[in-house]
Amino acid sequence: MAPFDRSRTTLDAGREPASDGLRSSGPGRTSGDARPATIRPHRVDLVLEGGGVKGIALAGALEVLEERGYTVNRVAGSSAGAIAGALLTAGIPASQMVQILRETDYRLFEDGPWWTRTLPGKGLSILLHNGIHRGRHLRDWVAEQLAEHGAPGGTGTFADLRYEDPDPGIELTGAHAHRLVVTVSDLSAGLLRYLPLDADALGTSPDALRVADAVRASTSIPLFFRPVRWKNAHGLPSVLVDGGLLSNFPVSVFDRPDGEPPRWPTFGLKLSAKPEADFGVRNRIRGPLSFGKAVADTVTGFYDRMHIDAAHSVARTIFIDTEAVRPTQFDLSEEERELLYRKGRKAATDFLDGDHEQEPWDFEAYTRRFRTGSGTETLPQR
Prior knowledge:
Blueprint: E1 9-10, E2 21-24, E3 43-48, H1 55-67, E4 71-77, H2 80-89, H3 94-103, H4 119-129, E5 131-133, H5 136-149, E6 170-173, E7 180-186, E8 191-195, H6 211-218, E9 223-225, E10 228-231, E11 237-242, E12 266-270, H7 288-308, H8 311-314, E13 317-319, H9 334-353, H10 363-370
Parallel strand pairs: 3-4, 3-12, 4-7, 5-9, 12-13
Antiparallel strand pairs: 1-4, 2-6, 7-8, 7-11, 10-11
Helix pairs in contact: 1-3, 1-9, 2-6, 5-6
């Protein structure tokens, strides 16, 4: 297999501290220096939402971006988005990712003793281990894909994914310093962790952290998979689960903290339909069950809705309607795999070319409307 350039992957043909991002390291440069968007018109950062087996739809959308000549700089993701991001930043083309994800037998991810396949056994495993399936097969599968299909000579750690900005005068820090950012929910600390940025708090260094281990933690769907347990920097246990529990769609993670116009866009890929008009009611509460569901939805979705409900986030997000498939539907039929793939391709095509609901994607128009520092719809300064 021919080697791929790790600093650029061509696609379909920690929080976010105020100090993260761009800093000047060259003479006469300031962090506010903005480059015209036309210099690198096809560069893009990506934020990929999680959704279990729905990741096939992400691959379909990524394949369209690849065909259109987009070059991916950095990827952030949770759960299925973390898997797709890990494959992509390892140098695996989206067209090959489609093949990998469509041919994978996801039923093997439901690993564990035979008795966990019975209803009493599932309950016992939850009581004993806080989850049904071990998740070892998933972790090993990710590591195998990176080793077999990724760029040769890799170590499987985030040291392989150090990001080099195309402008040599720019110094990158925090979440901007690596090509892959994986979100996990740290139940012990009650925090959303951005890996590898927060690796030090979890007892390791960013460059020593194995990508497959970070992805395994991010895919720990509560109760379905057993949580991942690491020793933190103080030697105490940290219990890590699916990043989607706190933020399934950190669409602003790569935004410039200095408020200046971006040099290239960030596209979000979200595994749900475009939000309808806001009538002030998201969850209809008719009894205790719907009340409990509304509480869970509010707790887990509040952070992301602060971003995705904003016009500037909607304008740069590819919405893929995957409601027909459950995230843990690991016994997908071939027809359902094809449906997810086609949904992803169609959503990306409609986003780029426009449809009856939206104009074709235009980065310069987006920047003028939302990121120029003037007008009522400009992003607030962070």
